[in-house]
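Hi R.,

As promised, here are both runs. First protein below:
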Amino acid sequence: MGRRTFLGAAGVGAATTALAGCLSSGGGNDGLTIGHLAPMSNPLGIGSKRTVDMAVEELNEDGGFNGEEAEVITKDTRTDPSEAQSVTEELIQQEDVDLLIGTFNSETTQSILDLTAEFDVPLMITGSAAPSLITDSVGSDYEKHKNVFRIGPINSDFQAESIADYCSYLNDRHGWDQVAFLRDQAEWTEPFGDQIPDLLSERDLEIVYQDALSIEGTDFGPVMSDVNESNADFVLRFFAHIDGGDMLTRWHEGQYDFGIEGVHVSGMLPSYNALYEGAATYETTSQSGAAGVAPITDHTQPFVEDYASRYQDAEDAPTQAPMYMGFNTYDAVHIFKEVVDSLETTNTRDNLDDFVGEMLDVEFTGVAGQVSFYGEDSDYPHDVREDRGEDGTIMNYPMTQWVGPEEVECVYPDQHRTADHQMPPWMQ
């Protein structure tokens, strides 16, 4: 797998079908069927597929879902809205699924919301952060879109607040107060563009450079020069579609006098730093579950250990931990079991109102943290709640830092910290 192209070449083919349990294909009247949607040429999708399979296998062996074994059918969205619509329709119309889980980028998720609503299929979002996925669906027409819930991550509005507080921590620790703000030119980062300047200003931090970068391809040479000339203390970047490996390589080779912080989805891959020969060392990224390096809950590290024991010898990444979407997907399956056991039926589509009522009562301790949902009258109906500590700090959006070729530490928030944030040695 090439270092520069790992996101597009994870070694998985087109749409894949995974069976967990012993039921025949079909779903609906033939048994409980869970449809899983993910980009299967992307390690995020692979990790999510593995964790949905893990969860269903475990729960099938432990009495099933209201006594029924479940079957999982995974379809490849290819991170393409039209493809996502096509495979979602197939799962609904042909496979008669009782639940849909997954989807990564927000544009893909947006494309299937009306379709799932039309057929009353519960949809648990586990990889997309745009607030509009909730506010423009459940928040706009509750009766139509009440089938939609987000399990994680917390939406970008809450992410912006959490990241701003993290920047205050960097200021307290290193005296960093000048920020270069970079982001994907994509829907999920629009709240950051709207909110980060004011949030940082409120914390006495100054943005000295900012840009929204094309997800079709970015030459980081000019970007690095511009950031360097701005005298920024650190780059605060939000990359999900952009692989920042070239940026990190230039950073290390040039020993630029600024840190690289924020969100970098590619950098969540457990083998990422090795793929880039250590160039990611000292960068940070926020990620659900903190890559399993911190005991977010009592379930987090045993889950990652189980995942690694199953997949450490697998050909395709990720093998050591599933990346953030996998944490949320695993929790989604367990939440679904809790709800249908309480309902005493797995026929969710014919009992959608009851299903929604049970979901709104959920107080769940998962591998990614505490999970509960906002109600109908909130600003974010059916969105996962941010989990706050006694000091008001958001706890379910932890920051991790690469500190070695394969070593990661959780550096924020205090409640989950396994090590203090390290400044690159050339800056000291």
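And here is the second one, sequence first, then its structure tokens:
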Amino acid sequence: MDTVSRLLRMAQLEATLEKHCLLGAGTRMDVARYGRLEVPFHVLLDGECRLFVGREVFDLRPGDVVLIPSGAAHRVVTAGPGRPRGTVETGGEAFVTTRSERGGDPVIDLFCGHYTVNAGAGALLFRSLPGAVHVAFGQSTDTDEVLRGLSALMRAEADREGSGTAAILSALCTVLLAMVLRTARGASDVVWTAVTDPGIADAVGSVLAEPGEDWSIERLSRQVSMSRATFLRRFVRETGMTVGTWLARARMMAAAELLTTTDVSVATIADRVGYRSESAFTRAFRAELGTTPARFRRKTVSNLQS
């Protein structure tokens, strides 16, 4: 299984399209902070607008996608004279339609939604990404074609809004996330799921496939035919993390999945993800997820049963 597909399976992701925003000129839409296991996203189908996430400002054009792994509060603004106006919402069976106060022709067509992930692998995956990820239209010919077709499908289904629309839009939003994870390359931040160096991609895939192996830096660099220094330099450049930091996170994602999908002992899981002792594994798990493996398992299983 490829890296992105494996990560999405581990995250146990659910996609929800919340709003279809048809906003006029001079409009401001504030979006509150999302919950710990929720990751908001926006897809601009038509027009131009600005998205403010903390101190970051994204100029969006048709086809652009923004993913906000931090879940931070943010703001969508369309250009226009005078004091910005707010928005009004109309409920629907599959999603809410949001328009500008006092009417007027829309200047943007925007989809807004969020992904819900599990408390283990999903939370760790999105914690390892930048606070906001922008995939701009025009970065890749292949990506452009797919995103254009995906946007058209989403718009057509939203316009139709009938039986099955919520499920169809959820599936299309999951496809959208897979595209973002495999193609996103920021100007300053890097998205490690979209590594472009074939050697580093091979190393990442090998660890995710076999987290229990003895993945020393020497072994990984030999596997991809690089010197140790070259491998370390390229790994940080491509992933934004040191090998040690990324390796620990990858192993904890695998461990969280095993804790919630199997009933094998914590000691056995520790061995399967590459730890020589249960105590060392427990310390590493607590450092990443803030709790012990046993407590994580009990809480997760209890939540699933409730």
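A quick note on the second one: DSSP finds eleven helices and eleven strands in the chain. Let me know what you think.

Best,
J.
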